[in-house]
Amino acid sequence: MITCERQIKSDYLKTVIEKTEAKNIHEKEFIQALKEVLLSLEPVIIKNENEYKASALLERLVEPERVISFRVPWVDDKGQVQVNRGFRIQFNGAIGPYKGGLRFHPSVNQSIMKFLAFEQIFKNALTGLPIGGGKGGSDFDPKRKSDMEIMKFCQSFMNELQKHIGQDLDVPAGDIGVGGREIGYLFGQYRKIRNTYEAGVLTGKGLEYGGSLARKEATGYGLMYFMREMLKANNIQVEGKTAIISGSGNVAIYACEKAQEMGIKVLAMSDSSGCIYDKNGINLDAVKEIKEVKRGRIKEYLNYVPSAQYFENGINIPAIYSIKADIILPCATQNDIDLETAKILVSNGAMAVGEGANMPCTNEAVEYFIENKVLVAPGKAANAGGVATSALEMSQNSSRCSWTFEEVDKKLENIMVNIFKQCSESAKEYDFANNYVVGANIAAFKKISGAMIAQGII
Ligand code: NDP
After folding, report:
1. CA-CA distance, 30 to 26, in Å (whole number)?
2. Among 115, 225, 250, which is best to mutate for testing ligand 1, by the most ligand atoms less than 8 A from CB?
3. Tens of pLDDT along 273-294?
4. Last residue of a domain, one of 151, 168, 197
5. Total domains, the chain
6. Is 135 a catalytic residue?
7. Is the pTM higher than 0.85?
8. Is 211 domain-assigned?
9. Do 18 and 70 share a structural domain?
10. Ligand 1 binding pocket, CB closer than 6 Å
11. In a shared domain, residues 331 and 447
């Protein structure tokens, strides 16, 4: 059995963590996410230990309501049959229909799906909207696939997924490798099989068929609204700061757009191969053309800005993290920043980290940042703007109306301001000062545990 690294005062908490680790011993990302949350909740657990123990609240919280795994066969352009594995984790529906993205990436496995779905429960609770936590995806790699192959894969994936989703049951959206194109193919297949126009069954749809303005921008914009609130609360001005952004996908691009609008100079962006460094500030139009239009590599930026530099990733630390900046925005994938990288960033004078991605920093890296007075905007709060706007898309679908870009953006901004407020107030209530990581977990847990207790032992 794997033991917990630090002293735990609550026997109940210790037992739950140990039992869950033993039961899911091969699921390291899930255990990492679970420990990050549960350990930070200890003060709340100690206060309510008897009540939680009596209803096995924590044991129920860490066990998904449903784990669905299925075969996805499809035929490639050469006529060969390919087989992938699909997942949907319906982790917790106490607050509302399961909601969470679909990830298509070769690294996808049950552990990654469960960690993402677990995080999603807390994130969705923080939005204040009635949505439960879920996640799904496949180990399918969309890179270097033709449009036809992407369509065939999406159709086969939906043939099975449609049995488990619905606008009042489970509403998937995009994530890594799943953008507007994939959502379109998935929606088309759902509509064909079900023979009904259920617009609210998927979010991130195109504007022509029920999508919401500002959904594409929402996660990145929301991250920067949260960052602005966090810096303001700590008497730091946003304008004039420098930033580096890992990734160059949906979240990274729109974080960059809002950061630049706020007067931040973005010096570097990356993809899984390496990073570009532009001392004059990133030309975002060039990045958008490379990534959104050509689906190319970030290296091609040098064709647009020859004075910029490109650094290939080494074996250990992603190249981008050796570039000095005030604000660090990891917007690519999980565990991008480990303790070693965190040490480099701190010694380079970083003052704030905003997690655009889900769990981009290891637990040790987060602890190191906080010990060294670097402000951390935790992913489950700071990147909640995407799912919040997805819920706004669902509202528009059910009332058959559509709001303007400005209306959606204003609602998003208010939601992010409110999420920051909840994180800040909960941290203060339990004497964690400006530790928003703990604040986010406590604020979300209070809501979820309240709903779970009220609904009885189910
Ligand atoms: P995209 O697929 O649009 O972009 C992902 C980016 O991250 C790409 O630049 C990709 O580079 C890079 N990347 C992916 N995997 C790796 C890896 N293993 N190592 C290094 N770089 C990698 O995804 P999103 O922008 O949608 O998502 C990014 C993160 O944000 C994810 O953690 C996701 O869960 C999270 N998130 C997304 C939301 C959304 O609304 N889209 C909402 C909330 C969170 P390459 O092209 O080379 O693979």
Report:
1. 9
2. 250
3. 999 999 999 999 999 999 999 9
4. 197
5. 3
6. yes
7. yes
8. no
9. no
10. 174-177, 219, 247-252, 271-273, 331-333, 356-358, 383, 386
11. no
